[in-house]
Design goal:
The complex is a heterodimer of chains A (120) and B (106).
Chain A: E1 3-7, E2 10-12, E3 18-25, E4 34-39, E5 46-51, E6 58-60, E7 68-73, E8 78-83, E9 92-99, E10 107-110, E11 114-118
Parallel strand pairs in A: 2-11
Antiparallel strand pairs in A: 1-3, 3-8, 4-5, 4-9, 5-6, 7-8, 9-10, 9-11
Chain B: E1 3-6, E2 9-12, E3 18-24, E4 32-37, E5 44-48, E6 52-53, E7 61-66, E8 69-74, E9 84-89, E10 96-97, E11 101-105
Parallel strand pairs in B: 2-11
Antiparallel strand pairs in B: 1-3, 3-8, 4-5, 4-9, 5-6, 7-8, 9-10, 9-11
The chains are: A mainly beta (120), B mainly beta (106).
Chain lengths: 120, 106
């Protein structure tokens, strides 16, 4: 069974940094393209970032470009999201999601999410 | 690309048909996915490529449309179908989601 388990969320102050992790199992992680998607409290989904299986290609939402960095360690089957200069509007549940094998652009497996709160 | 879903809330009785709309601000061809999200849970993929059901999705869910106009139809609502539904385009980066349609019990 394909599983994704996010961790690393918490409460931080504006301007601080945090790194989220997503441990993958049940599939060949090194072959899988991956996404981060977030959901602010009571609101809809917002795509955050994408990384290709070999990390050669990455994309970011404009709202996080220059502040967030997506990366992966295929030897550990783990996806990361380094978040710097955090703002109150980054407060959300962060999901990691596996891209479909048929397309980079939609997500066929999602983790349960980890919660980030940015507040002073 | 801005994705607009309507209505924001749809009140439907069990057994009835529900039609959810998703409009893109420009053509996304057939690069459109639908997700279902139940309270306290992560989203799950229902439909991709506008009309292809994901693995394990019941046949009562169907997607249609292309270009900029899409519809998700639930032919006969079951109790487990009351949830929020999101469309998402994957034609152009950055990927974008619609604001969601909440399907509630009438």
């Amino acid at each position: 069974e394909v599983q994704l388990l996010e961790s690393g969320g918490g409460l931080v102050q504006p301007g601080e940094s945090l790194r989220l992790s997503c441990a993958a199992s049940g599939f060949t992680f090194s072959s899988g393209n991956m996404h981060w998607v977030r959901q602010p409290p009571g609101k809809g989904l917002e795509w955050v970032s994408f990384i290709k299986n070999n990390a050669a290609t990455t994309y970011y939402a404009d709202s996080v470009k220059g502040r967030f960095t997506i990366s992966r360690d295929n030897s550990k089957s783990t996806l990361y999201l380094q978040m710097n200069s955090l703002r109150a509007e980054d407060t959300a549940v962060y999901y990691c999601a596996k891209a479909s094998s048929t397309s980079w652009g939609h997500m066929d497996v999602w983790g349960k999410g980890t919660t980030l709160t940015v507040s002073s | 690309i801005v994705m607009t879903q309507s209505p924001a809330t749809l009140s439907v009785s069990p057994g009835e048909r529900a039609s959810l709309s998703c409009r893109a601000s420009q053509s996304v061809s057939s690069k459109l996915a639908w997700y279902q999200q139940k309270p306290g849970q992560a989203p799950s993929l229902l439909i991709y490529d506008a009309s292809t059901r994901a693995t394990g999705v019941p046949a009562r869910f169907s997607g249609s449309g292309s270009g900029a106009e899409f519809t998700l139809t639930i032919s006969s609502l079951q109790s487990e179908d009351f949830a929020i539904y999101y469309c998402q385009q994957f034609s152009t980066w950055p990927l974008t989601f619609g604001g969601g349609t909440k399907v509630e019990i009438k």
